[in-house]
Amino acid sequence: MIDFPDLADIVESTPSKIVMLVVDGLGGAPHPDTGKSELETANLPNLNRLARESAGGRTVPVLPGIAPGSGPGHLALFGYDPLKYFIGRGVLEALGIDVPLKKGEVAARGNFATIGGDGLLTDRRAGRIPSNEAKPLAELLNTIEVAGVDLEVRHVEGYRFVLVLRGQGLSDKVTETDPQRTGAAPLPVKPLAPEAWKTADAVNQFVAQAREVLSTQKRANMVLLRGFSELPSFPNFGKAYKLKPAAIAAYPMYRGLAQVVGMEVIPGCHSFEEEVQTLHRTWKEHDFFYIHYKYADAAGEDGNFAAKVKTLEEMDAYIPRILELSPDVFIVAGDHATPSIMAAHGWQPVPFLLRSKLTKGEGAAAFNERACAAGSIGTIQAQHLMLLALSHAGKLIKYGP
Amino acid sequence: MIDFPDLADIVESTPSKIVMLVVDGLGGAPHPDTGKSELETANLPNLNRLARESAGGRTVPVLPGIAPGSGPGHLALFGYDPLKYFIGRGVLEALGIDVPLKKGEVAARGNFATIGGDGLLTDRRAGRIPSNEAKPLAELLNTIEVAGVDLEVRHVEGYRFVLVLRGQGLSDKVTETDPQRTGAAPLPVKPLAPEAWKTADAVNQFVAQAREVLSTQKRANMVLLRGFSELPSFPNFGKAYKLKPAAIAAYPMYRGLAQVVGMEVIPGCHSFEEEVQTLHRTWKEHDFFYIHYKYADAAGEDGNFAAKVKTLEEMDAYIPRILELSPDVFIVAGDHATPSIMAAHGWQPVPFLLRSKLTKGEGAAAFNERACAAGSIGTIQAQHLMLLALSHAGKLIKYGP
C-alpha cells in the first residue's frame, strides 16, 4: 500500500462504484515521420468525447526513466509502491500460464539453452527454438523426479518454461543458474540462507537430470533457471480500501496479479468482449472493477505502430458499453507505455483520464499523452491514482483537523 | 521541517522580506455549466496583473486525492511534512477559539449528543442544536469538578465544545468515547499507555457527571469526546529558516497554528483590513509575514460559487496595499482547495504565484488553476514552497560543492 499513515481512518465504504480500465502498454511516443503518437493518430471518438468530461493526467509508473514490467506497472495502479512490493519472475511466469501457486511453493523461470562439448554456453536461448519443438521437451522435463520434492515443469512459449517446486521446507533464497553470458558454464544453485539448502539441492539434481534427458538434443541440450520466487504476502486491496473488488481479465497473468493483491478474480473471459459482458453481469456484486485490455501492448511490443493504432480504435468502440453502467468514477489508465518506436515497454508517463460528477467542467482536450499532460490533474505517481479514485467516489474523508 | 539534510548549512539571514498571503480554500474547480473555476470567473485585475510578473505553479498539499484539514494544509505551506507533523483535533479546536494551551495540557473535541432511555446513541450531534441552546449547556459542564485535575469546558459553535484538562501527570494517549455511529453506547475512555491512567479516569468521571448534569435535556443529554491531544513539539520555524516571522490572522485557529510552529503572533486583528494595517505597522520588525485571508474557504464550504467569487474579488482589492511595501518575495498561496461544487475541502492542486526580482520575465498568464498549472514552476509539493520563497529572497545558498 502507499505510504500513507492511518489510511484506514479516512477511507469509508459507500455505495459508489469505480471502474478502472487498464489498457496494457497504453502510452506511446510520437512517430518520427508524423510527430504524432499512437493515441494521437488513432480515431477515438468515444475516448476523446469522454476526455472532455474528465480530469486528465499522466502516471509515472515507478520513476522517470524506469520502464516497468507488468508486475510493477499494475501494482502501482493498485496503489502499491512498486519499489517496496515485488513479485518474482518465477511467480509471474507461473501466474501467466495459470499454474496454481500456494504460499511456500517456489517457482522459477526456465530457458532452454545450448552448451558445447566443454559444457560452456553457446546460446542462452537455444536458438530461440519454436514452441512446437520446445513443448515436448518441457513435457520430458516434467517426468524428472527428485526425492522429497514435487516438481512441475510447464511450457510457456518458445524457449521458455516454468519450474515449480512443491513440498515441505522450501525457500526461494537461492542463486540462479544463468551466468547471463555465453562462454561461461551454467552455475550451480547455492543457498542464500540456511533454510534454502533443501531447495538448492533439489534444483541442482533437477538440472543434472535435465542435462541427461536433453543430451541428445542439438540446440536445447541444457536448461537455465532464474527468478526463484514464492507467492508474496501483500496487504489486501479490498481490506485496505474498504472495497469489494472484482478483477476481469482474459489473460492469466493479470488475473494472477489481481489474485496476489487479494481481488476476487472473475473467471471465464477469453476476450475483451467477454470481459465487458462479465462487467455487466457482475455489476451489482462489486464496487471496484479492474478490467484489463491486453492488445495495445502486444502491438507495441511488435513495433507495429499501425497495429497499435488499430487496437486502440477497437478498444474505443467498447467505451459506450462501459459507460452504460454509469460508474461513479471511470478511469482509463495504463500500466506502462509500450511505444511502437521502441518495440518494448517504455518509461514514458502514461496518459489517464478520470471521470466523476466533479470533473464535468475541467475536461481534457483529448485522450492522448500531450492533452493529458495538460489536463487538470497533471503528472502524478501511478501509486497515487487509487487515492484520486477513492476521493472522486466520495470514499475518502478529510485528512487531519 | 522538510526532509532536507543540513538545511541550516545553506540558509542565511539577510535583510530581504517575504510575504506569504495564505488564502484559505483558495483553489476551486470549474463549474459544470461554464467550465470556469471561481478564480477564472472572478474579476481580479490586481492578481492577474501580478501573475504576469510572477512565477506560477500549483501546490499539492499532502498527496493527490487527499483533502487536508487546515492543520496539514498550513503546516505544508510552512515547510513541515504534513504526514510527519500532526496537530490533534482537540488542540486545533482549542486554538480555534483562543483557549490558551501549554505543554502537558490535554484538549479534546466535544460534541453534544442524544441518547435514548437504553443509553444508546440516537444522534451524535444532538440534532445539531444551535449555539444559543448549546452555550449555556457548555457553561453548565464547565462547573463540573474532578479531583486532581483542572477542567475547562468552552463552547465552540453549534453542538461543538472543547474540554481542556490541566494538571500534573496528564497524557493524550487515551481512546475516544465516540463510537462513530448511532445505535451504539458511548465508549468508556481507556488508557493507551501506562502514564495515561489518570487522564482516562478523570475523563470518565467528567462524562459520568456530564450525563447527570444534562439528564433533563431532551436533545443534548450526553457528550462525546474525541481527538485527545497535547500541544506538539515541532522544530521552530524561525530558527530553522533563520527568519523573524510574524503571523497576522483574524481567526484564532490560524494564530494557533502559527504559534505551534513558533512564529510571533501579532494580536489585535479582527478583519483582513486590520491584518493589512498590521502588516504595514510591523513591517520593520520582521522579515517573514504569514498573513491569512479566511473568507474564500467559508464561501466554498457553503457551496456558494458566486459568494466565493465575490470574496476573491474583495481580496484582490487589497493586493496593491500589500505591494506598496515592496516585499522582496510576495507569495499568494492556499492551504487547500475548497471547490464550491464540492462544498468541502478538496484534494485538487492549489494555484500559487511567487513574485521576486527574478520572476519579471516568466509571468503566468493569469491567477487561476489552469494558468498556474502552466506557470514556470509547475506542480510541486506544498512543503517545498518555503524553499522557493527563501531562494527567491536570496536566503538559500548553493547546496553541495
Task: Give a quick summary of the entry.
Chain A has 401 residues and is an alpha/beta fold. Chain A contains 15 helices and 13 strands.
Task: Describe the fold and architecture.
- Two copies of one chain form a homodimer.
- Chain A contains 15 helices and 13 strands.
- In chain A, the strands form two sheets. Chain A has an eight-stranded mixed β-sheet with strand order 9-8-10-1-11-12-2-13, sandwiched between helices. In chain A, strands 3, 4, 5, 6 and 7 form a five-stranded antiparallel β-sheet that branches.
- With 401 residues, chain A is an alpha/beta fold.
- In chain A, 30% of the residues lie in helices and 19% in strands.
- Chain A has two domains: 7-87 and 234-392, Alkaline Phosphatase, subunit A (3-Layer(aba) Sandwich), CATH 3.40.720.10; 92-230, Alpha-Beta Plaits (2-Layer Sandwich).
- In chain A, helix 9 links the parallel strand 8 and strand 9.
- Chain A has helices at residues 7-10, 38-41, 45-51, 70-77, 89-96, 131-141, 197-213, 237-241, 252-260, 272-281, 295-301, 305-316, 319-323, 369-373, 385-392, and strands at 18-23, 55-60, 106-115, 121-123, 150-157, 160-166, 222-230, 245-248, 264-265, 288-293, 329-333, 350-355, 378-381.
